[in-house]
Design a protein that fits this description.
The chain contains 6 helices and 2 strands; from the N terminus they run H-E-E-H-H-H-H-H. The protein is mostly helical and about 150 residues long. Strands 1-2 form a two-stranded antiparallel ribbon. A hairpin with a 2-residue loop joins strand 1 and strand 2.
């Protein structure tokens, strides 16, 4: 009888975890989870919806790090665990280079929010063949014209 109770508790906890994850990731979207014999996954959605889900994920990760640390570098390192370190730190560098030139124009809250979107967009580009081809071409270009 104890094993039946344990199974019910695990099942209840799993459903609760899925609900919490859905509330975090799918906020302000029409995205849903689909579960069947093939497993649990995201329902088909538009690119814009997927970007919102990924930005919600970034916001969640950053908020979890903020609870533990005030260091901005820790936020970037935590995002680099899910994206590549190159993507996260290059996006951060590009954004803050722009901010340095326009220091009075943008608040910190907007900068961090924009960085969350920028990371997702660059990551999606990196996952496409177009960027891979560009990286190969740019590597060849820099090799040919290096001094």
């Amino acid at each position: 009888m104890d094993w039946q109770r344990s199974i019910l508790q695990v099942r209840h906890q799993f459903k609760n975890d899925i609900r919490v994850i859905s509330n975090i990731l799918f906020r302000d979207t029409n995205v849903n989870l689909v579960s069947n014999h093939l497993g649990t996954r995201l329902d088909k959605c538009s690119t814009e919806e997927m970007i919102k889900v990924m930005v919600n994920f970034n916001s969640f990760i950053i908020s979890e790090v903020e609870d533990r640390s005030l260091d901005d570098n820790n936020k970037l390192i935590s995002l680099a665990e899910y994206y590549s370190r190159d993507v996260v730190f290059v996006c951060n560098s590009i954004l803050y280079s722009f901010v340095k030139k326009n220091v009075n124009a943008i608040s910190d809250a907007y900068i961090e929010y924009f960085l969350r979107y920028l990371i997702v967009l660059v990551y999606q580009l990196k996952m496409t063949d177009i960027l891979i081809c560009f990286e190969k071409f740019s590597g060849l270009f820099s090799t040919l014209f290096s001094i």
